[in-house]
Amino acid sequence: MFxxxxxxxxxxxxxSTVSPLHAQAPATSTAEPSNVTELLRLLEAADVxxxxxxxxxxxxxxxxxxxxxxIDDLEVRWxxxxxxxxxxxxxxxxxxxxxxxxxxxxxxxxxxAPAILLIGIIVGIGFGTEWFLRRSVPAVTLPNQLLSxxxxxxxxxxxxxxxxxxxxxxxxxxxxxxxxxxxxxxxTVAYRxxxxxxxxxxxxxxxxxxxxxxxxxxxxxxTAAMAFSAxxxxxxxxxxxxxxxxxxxxxxxxxxxxxxxxxxxxxxDAQLLGRRVPRTTGIxxxxxxxxxxxxxxxxxxxxxxxxxxxxRVLSIADELSHAFAASRWNDDGATDPKTVLLVRGARxxxxxxxVDWIVFVWHHHFQPITGQLALAKTIIAGAFxxxxxxxxxxxxxxxxxxxxxxxxxxxxxxxxxxxxxNARQGRLRTLLPVFRNALAAGLxxxxxxxxxxxxxxxxxxxxxxxxxxxxAIGFGSQTLVKDVVSGIFYxxxxxxxxGEYIEAGSYTGTVExxxxxxxxxxxxxxxxxxxxxxSLGAIKNLSxxxxxxxxxxxxxxxxxxxxxxxxxxxxxxxxxxxxxxxxSFIEPLKLKGVEQIGEYGIELGVGFTCKPGDQxxxxxxxxxxxxxxxxxxxxxxxxPVVQVSGDDKGSAAAAHATRQLQGITAPPGPxxxxx
Length: 675
What we know:
By secondary structure, the chain is an alpha+beta fold. It contains 21 helices and ten strands. The strands form three sheets. It has a five-stranded antiparallel beta sheet. A three-stranded antiparallel beta sheet has the order 8-10-9, with helices on one face. Helix 4 (66-88) packs across helix 10 (239-263), helix 6 (115-136) packs across helix 7 and helix 8 runs antiparallel to helix 9. The longest helix has 39 residues, at 374-412. The protein is elongated and about 150 Å long. The chain starts with a helix and ends in a 14-residue tail after the last helix.
C-alpha cells in the first residue's frame, strides 16, 4: 500500500496544481441583441409590473431546494469540464510543439545550449561536488545508528542541493529557459529527498524495504509529472491542455499502483489502517481515488488520501521516534517525558499538517457546496478545528501522565533511604494519583467544552447552567463538600499515608486506602472503618519517625536500686544485640528512676525509644527478661502485705481483710464480722 500512498501524495503536491476544476471553458463573447433594450423598456411599464405581480400571487413560487441547486451546479460544471477536455485533445500536440519551439528559439537567440543539455550539466556538477566532498572529508562519527543513517542520507543531498542552486543562480537565464531549468532541478531534488526518506523508513519498516524498487519508479514518474505540469502552466499552455496532460500522467501512476498491488500475493503492501485488505479492495480504492481526482472532488479525494497515508506515516514516525529515544536517552520510552514529547509531538505535527491541508483544499475546492449548506460547513470546520484541539490536549495529558508515572516508579524502588526521603516518597505516592485524576478530569472538561464551541454550540448557557447546578449541589451536599475539602487539606498537610497506624477520635487502625471523600482504616483486630474525612478531626499518627515506650516495675522498699539499674542495663544490652529486635532500637532499654513510692513498694520507671510499630514486641520481650533476671538475682516484685494483731477482734478483722484481698466472701458472724 506504500505505492497507493505515494500515489495519493503525488496527486497532493503535483497534479492537484492543475486540477480539472480549475480549468474553465473557453470564453465566448456575444453581442447584445437589438431587442433587449425594447424588452427592458416594456418591463418598466406600470401595467406590465401589475400583471407580473398578479401572476406571481396567483401561481405559487416553486424554488429548488438547496440540495437540488447543488446537484444542478455540479452537473453543469462537470459537463462543461468534460466538453472542454474533449475539445483540448486535438490541440495537445500543437500546444506542446509551440512551447518547445519557443524555448529552443530563446536558447538559440541568447547563446545558451539546449535546456536538456544544461540541466544535465548542472546535475552532473552537483553529483561531482558530492562525490569529491565524500572522498575528501572524513565522515563524522555519531553516537547512534539512527543519527548516522540520517547523516548518510541527507548530508550528500544538502551538498548536491547547494551546488546546483549556486550554479543556477550565477547565470542570468532567459525567461522561458529559467522556468524549464528551475522546475527540472526542483523535481530532481524532490526525487532524491523522497527516496532518502524512504531509505530512512526502511530501517524500521520491512514492508517499505520490499516495496522500495516500485516506489522509486513511482516517485520518478511523479516528480517528472510535477515538473512538466508546472512548466506547462508557467509557459502559458492552455489550462484545459494542462489538465489533460495531468490526467495522462495520473493514469500512468494509476497503472503503476495497480501493478504493485496485483503483483503482491500476500498483500503486505496493501494495508489499510493496520489491517490487511484483499488485492481487489486495494485496486478498487486506488481507482476510486483517481476518479475522484479526475472528477474534481478534491475534498473527498484528499480525505481518502489522508485516510490511507496518515496511519502508515504515523506508524513509521512512532518507530523512528522510539528508536531515536532508545539510542539517545537509553530509556524504554514508557514513562520518560522527553520520549513522550518526541513521539506524541511528531504524531501531533503530522496530523495537524494533514488536517490543515484538508482544510485548505476543502475551503478552495468545496466552497460551492459548503457555501450553500451552512450547517454542513459549520460541522466540517468544527470537526477539523477540534482535531487540532484534541491533539494539543492529548499531548498535555500524555506528558502529565508520563511524569506522574515516572515519579511513582521512582517512589516504588526505594531501598535504604533516609527517613526524610522515605517520608517525601510516601507523600508523593499518596498525592500523585489524586493529581493525575484531577488532571484527567480537568482536561476532559476543557476538551468537551472546546469541541462543542467549535461545532457551533453556544457553551455560555452550558457553563452558566453548570454553575447553577454546582451551587445547588453545594448547598444540598454540604457534608460531601466538607469531606472532599477536608481530605484535600489532610493530604496536603501530609497528616497520614497508606500503611500508617493512626488514631482519629474513636477510630484506630492502619490506613489501607482512601478516596476523595473517605479513608479506610483496618483495626489491629480485623474490622475495617470507612471514615469520612470530615469526621476525622485531630489525627494521632503512631507511625512517624520514632516512639517512646515506658512501663513501671514495683519492687519492695528494701530492694537494692543500684543492682536493679545494672540488671535493666544488662537486659537493654541483650535486647540491643538481638538479631531480630536490635535494628528497631533508637535508644536502648534503661532505668529512668523512681516514679512513685507506693503503699507497699517502690514504682520504677523503665523506658526505651524505637521505630514506630515495634514497641509492643520489644516490651513483651523485656517483661520476660526482667522476670527471669529478677528471679535469678533474688529480687521480688512488690506485693500487698497485711499485718495481723494478737486480739480476737483484730484476728477476725485481719482474716476478713485477707479474704477480701483474695476475693473470698463469707456471711458475718455474731459480732458483725465475717466468720
